[in-house]
Design brief:
Elements lengths: L9 E6 L4 E8 L7 E2 L2 E2 L2 E2 L4 E2 L1 E4 L6 E4 L1 H4 L24 E2 L23 H23 L9 E7 L5 H13 L11 E5 H13 L8 E7 L4 E8 L5 E3 L4 E3 L4 H15 L1 H10 L1 H16 L9 E5 H4 L9 H9 L3 E5 H25 L4 E7 L6 H10 L5 E3 L7 H11 L11
Parallel strand pairs: 1-10, 10-11, 12-18, 18-19
Antiparallel strand pairs: 1-2, 2-3, 2-6, 4-5, 7-8, 7-9, 12-13, 13-14, 13-15, 16-17
Helix pairs in contact: 2-3, 4-12, 5-6, 5-7, 5-10, 6-7
Pfam families: HSP70
GO molecular function: ATP binding; ATP-dependent protein folding chaperone
Keywords: ATP-binding, Nucleotide-binding
């Protein structure tokens, strides 16, 4: 580190994700002890919290953020006994996916619409303020004498698609959120998410690679999938062989396809009514699908899963009409989902990821020795199966333990010891 950073005692890496965010930290005197935050209010043992905020009706202050702002477990199991006018409804809708406003690759019409009183910079600032406060509280519990403005180096991981303008805007939001003492502070660095993940994976498997070997990082998140190919140099340094590439083909696309599937069973207007009036309950419904179906699915032929709407999405029962209501009454409000249905949700997304990997392989002049799958979506057994089948000639295709944490752990390692020889942002 430079002389200007002599006061740095702790490195904090923050992964501001499209759908989920998190952070990790380590003290420079104990660089091997990297701690990942895994406690978010009442949600324990989760490495990330949703990148979501919920404002009071005047949109001047945040009411909730993270999990409490997004997910609402159903309380009315016998929802059919109530008219829709008597059902408790959500207040102000949660704001999510606002990070996408920083991506020029996404058309304006495809970016999430914000309430008139809000602009995306303020939403990013407000979320980073809450996340930053959580970071500072956590650090002070461990090191009471720590000054977060002087003794902490912040490493912010960003998507491969971020250009200099996006990074400058993000830096401005972070400063306005109170993480930095002044806007030109040296206590901040930016690194792309794939590069951070590459550092983490290299730290795990360096004994299995030799100088000259190349490997690819495929960072599969909720919103985006980012890729980079690196070469291992002498002294365990890394060189980027290809430019980082990526696309908006993360796991949230599968969630959208799932809701479209349910909409075909209950009627699109019913889904839209629940989305408008009971958004938290709808997100609970999606989370149940993710944990019970999306991540465990392994390409099992003949697999079938029953979705009990009365149990997991009771509000829908007050909006289903006509023939759909008759059919669901006959089936006791249970929807069957089979392996073909699930593949139809997965395959368009996975096919895009396979194309991105193929393009990266074509761009590199060196033979790829390994592919490392990181990010929350990489836990999908079906995604792993498809990638291994498509690229079976690659000797090593693996998923590190807790792949959701690869980016923040790599960010901490980067802050502790700069080992990437190419440019980074924020210096």
């Amino acid at each position: 580190m430079s002389e200007a950073n002599d006061e740095i005692r702790v490195v904090v890496a923050i992964d501001f994700g499209t759908t989920y965010s998190g952070y990790a930290y380590a003290h420079k005197e104990q660089p091997d002890v990297i701690i990942v935050q895994d406690s978010w209010k009442e949600y324990e043992s989760r490495f990330k919290t949703p990148t979501v905020v919920k404002y009071y009706d005047n949109y001047s202050d945040i009411k909730l953020w993270g999990y409490p702002a997004l997910i609402e477990k159903p309380k009315l199991k016998k929802a059919r006994l109530f008219s829709s006018s008597k059902l408790p409804k959500s207040s102000s809708a949660p704001i999510e996916l606002f990070k996408l406003h920083l991506l020029k690759s996404i058309k304006g019409s495809e970016k999430p619409t914000l309430p008139r009183k809000l602009n995306y910079k303020n939403v990013i600032r407000d979320f980073m303020k809450k996340l930053g406060d959580d970071v500072k509280t956590c650090l002070k519990k461990t090191w009471q004498s720590l000054d977060p403005e002087r003794n902490v180096l912040y490493i912010l991981t960003v998507p491969a698609e971020f250009d200099d303008e996006a990074i400058a805007t993000f830096r401005e939001c972070v400063f306005n959120a109170g993480l930095l003492k002044d806007e030109e502070s040296n206590n901040i660095r930016f690194i792309t998410e794939p590069k951070a993940a590459a550092i983490h994976c290299l730290n795990l498997v360096v004994q299995n690679l030799t100088p000259g070997d190349s490997f690819m990082i495929v960072d599969c998140g909720g919103g985006t999938v980012d890729l980079t190919t690196c070469e291992l140099l002498e002294d365990e340094r890394l060189s980027e062989l290809t430019e980082c590439t990526g696309d908006c083909c993360g796991s949230s696309r599968i969630d959208e396809a799932f809701l479209e599937f349910v909409g075909e069973k209950v009627g699109k207007s019913a889904i839209e009514s629940v989305r408008k009036n009971h958004y938290g309950q709808l997100q609970y419904f999606v989370q149940e699908f993710c944990s019970q179906v999306k991540l465990p699915f392994r390409n099992d032929e003949g697999m079938q899963h029953d979705i009990d709407l009365e149990e997991s999405l009771p509000a829908i029962m007050n909006y289903v009409k006509g023939e759909e209501r008759e059919r669901l009454n006959d089936s006791e409000w249970i929807i069957e989902i089979n392996s073909t249905d699930i593949k139809n949700m997965f395959d368009p997304v996975i096919n895009k990821i396979l194309s991105l990997i193929g393009e990266q392989l074509d761009k590199s002049e060196k033979k790829c020795s390994a592919i490392f799958l990181v990010g929350g979506f990489s836990e999908s057994k079906y995604l792993q199966y498809r990638i291994r089948r498509e690229f079976c000639k690659i000797p090593n295709i693996s998923v590190p333990p807790h792949p959701t944490t690869s980016v923040v752990k790599g960010g901490v390692l980067y802050g502790l010891e700069e080992i990437i020889k190419d440019r980074t942002y924020g210096k």
